[in-house]
C-alpha cells in the first residue's frame, strides 16, 4: 500500500509538472529594462514629478539620476553602467566655455552644473552612447563642438515668434520645419511642420563642428541638430519630455522610444 501511495504521488507530481509547462506556468526571466542616465541638475530633485524621469518610464526604460561630476573620467565611469543618456534643460551657460563678451541680458549660470555637464557630454561623445540633449543640453553640445550661442537672441533676431513666456510661467508654442532623412525626422514621423513647446532665450548662433541642422523655426532659430560623427546623438531646443508628460502628447514619445531602440541596437553589437 505504501509503495502504491508513493507511485500515485509520483504520477501526480509528473502530471502537475506537465500541466504547468503546457500552461506556461514556469516563469521566464524578466527582461531587464535599459538604463537611461539623466544629467544632474540639483541634489533635492522631486523625481516623482520630473518630466524626464516619467518620459523614460513611459517609453519603457529605467531612469537613473546621475551624480554631479567634476571630471570627464568620473562621467565616463558612470556611463559604463548606462545604455543611453538624456541631457536636461536649465540655466544659461557661463561665457568661459565659448569666450564672448558678456551681454547685459545674459542670465544666471550654475558653475557646478556647467562643470558636470561639460564632462558628461564630452564623455558621451567619446563613448558613443545614444544621447538626447534637451534645450540647455543642445546648447552645451554646440559649444563643446566649437560653436557659440546667442546670449539673448530675442534682442538680436527680429521675430514675431514667442520662444519664451514673458512671465516665465508656461511654455510658449510655435511651429518648426523638420528636414527629412535623419533621426529627429524619424521620431517625428517624417519631414514636415510640427508644433513644439518653447522655453528659452538663448539659441545656437555659430554652429559647431559635425552638427547638422535638421529643424528650424520660421525666424531661423535652430530647433534641432544631429551629430554626424556619432551613431545616435541629437539636440532638441524644445522639450519633448514635457510634451509627453505634461501635455499628454504621445506623438512625441518616439523621441524616447527611439533612444531606447538605439541603445538596444548598440547593446546587441
TrEMBL record:
UniProt-listed PROSITE patterns: GATASE_TYPE_1, PROKAR_LIPOPROTEIN
One term of GO molecular function: gamma-glutamyl-gamma-aminobutyrate hydrolase activity
InterPro entries: Class_I_gatase-like, Peptidase_C26, PuuD-like
Keywords, sorted A to Z: Signal
Protein name, as recorded: Peptidase C26
Any GO CC annotation of this UniProt entry: cytosol
Gene3D superfamilies reported in the protein's UniProt record: 3.40.50.880
Signal peptide positions (record): 1-24
Coiled coil, from the record: none
Amino acid at each position: 500500500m505504501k509503495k502504491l501511495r508513493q507511485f500515485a504521488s509520483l504520477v501526480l507530481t509528473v502530471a502537475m509538472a506537465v500541466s504547468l509547462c503546457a500552461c506556461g506556468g514556469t516563469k521566464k526571466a524578466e527582461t531587464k529594462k535599459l538604463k537611461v542616465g539623466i544629467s544632474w541638475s540639483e541634489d533635492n530633485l522631486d523625481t516623482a514629478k520630473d518630466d524626464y524621469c516619467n518620459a523614460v518610464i513611459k517609453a519603457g526604460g529605467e531612469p537613473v539620476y546621475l551624480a554631479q561630476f567634476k571630471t570627464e573620467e568620473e562621467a565616463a565611469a558612470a556611463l559604463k553602467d548606462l545604455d543611453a543618456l538624456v541631457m536636461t534643460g536649465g540655466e544659461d551657460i557661463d561665457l568661459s566655455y565659448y569666450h564672448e563678451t558678456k551681454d547685459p541680458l545674459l542670465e544666471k549660470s550654475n558653475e557646478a552644473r556647467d562643470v558636470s555637464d561639460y564632462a558628461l557630454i564630452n564623455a558621451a561623445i567619446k563613448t558613443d552612447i545614444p544621447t538626447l540633449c534637451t534645450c540647455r543640453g543642445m546648447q552645451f553640445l554646440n559649444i563643446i563642438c566649437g560653436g557659440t550661442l546667442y546670449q539673448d537672441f530675442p534682442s538680436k533676431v527680429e521675430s514675431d515668434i514667442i520662444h519664451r513666456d514673458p512671465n516665465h510661467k508656461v511654455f510658449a508654442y510655435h511651429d518648426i520645419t523638420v528636414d527629412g532623412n535623419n533621426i529627429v525626422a524619424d521620431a517625428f514621423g517624417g519631414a514636415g511642420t510640427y508644433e513644439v513647446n518653447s522655453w528659452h532665450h538663448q539659441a545656437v548662433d555659430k554652429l559647431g563642428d559635425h552638427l547638422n541642422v535638421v529643424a528650424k523655426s520660421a525666424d531661423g532659430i535652430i530647433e534641432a541638430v544631429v551629430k554626424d560623427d556619432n551613431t545616435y546623438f541629437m539636440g532638441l531646443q524644445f522639450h519633448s519630455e514635457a510634451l509627453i508628460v505634461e501635455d499628454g502628447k504621445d506623438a512625441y514619445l518616439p523621441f524616447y522610444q527611439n533612444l531606447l531602440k538605439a541603445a538596444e541596437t548598440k547593446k546587441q553589437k
